[in-house]
Amino acid sequence: MSSSLNLLTAQCQPQTTALSEAELPTWLALVPGWKPVKYDDMPPAIESHFAFDNFYQTMAFVNAVAEIAHGQDHHPDLIVSFGACTLRYSTHSAGGLTPNDFICAAQVSALPEATAA
User: Fold this and answer.
1) How would you label 51-75 residue by residue, b for 16+ Cβ within 10 Å and e otherwise?
2) What is the 3-state secondary structure of 26-70?
3) Contacts of 97 (CB under 8 A, 6+ apart)
4) Strand, helix or coil at 86?
5) In whole angstroms, what is the distance from residue 1 CA to residue 67 CA?
6) In CATH terms, is domain 4-8+25-109 a member of 3.30.200.210?
């Protein structure tokens, strides 16, 4: 992938391998507002926090994310509260981050409902 524009039109691939540590900075540059995270025994992931004025806006965003997840067959971990949603992408089957995580992150960030905090 050479640009975030490519990520917006890309389809997730069913069989992917984890990106190397050396590849991650290039991919992270394509998804501003997302940061790498590592929690306990979970594989490495990317995460972003989105803030909203109320619960209705938060849920509209979550529903839009669900459409992307369903269409790409790649599903994030979500933490939902009254006026916020945190998303975390990782490809568990690959044991780390793959292009699929960055494809979905870019598509989520491009949602009209997305106002990254």
Assistant:
1) ebeeeebbeebbebbeebbeebebe
2) HHHCCCCCCEEECCCCCCCEEEEEEECCCHHHHHHHHHHHHHHHH
3) 18, 19, 24, 27, 36, 43, 44, 45, 46, 89, 90, 91
4) strand
5) 23
6) no
User: What single-letter amino acid sits at 105?
Assistant: A
pLDDT score of 19 more than 80:
yes
Predicted local distance difference test score (pLDDT) of residue 112: 79
Predicted confidence (pLDDT) per residue in 81-99, tens digit? 999 999 999 999 999 999 9
Q: Report the candidate in 55, 54, 69, 53 with the shortest Cα–Cα distance to residue 111.
A: 69
- CA angle 110-113-114, nearest 5°? 55
| Digit-coded pLDDT (tens) for 46-81 | 999 999 999 999 999 999 999 999 999 999 999 999
Dig out the tokens for 84 from the structure. Answer: 């916020």
Domain spans of the chain, in order of start: 4-8+25-109
The pLDDT, as a whole number, for residue 2 is: 54
Query: Hey, what are 112's tokens?
Result: 């009209």
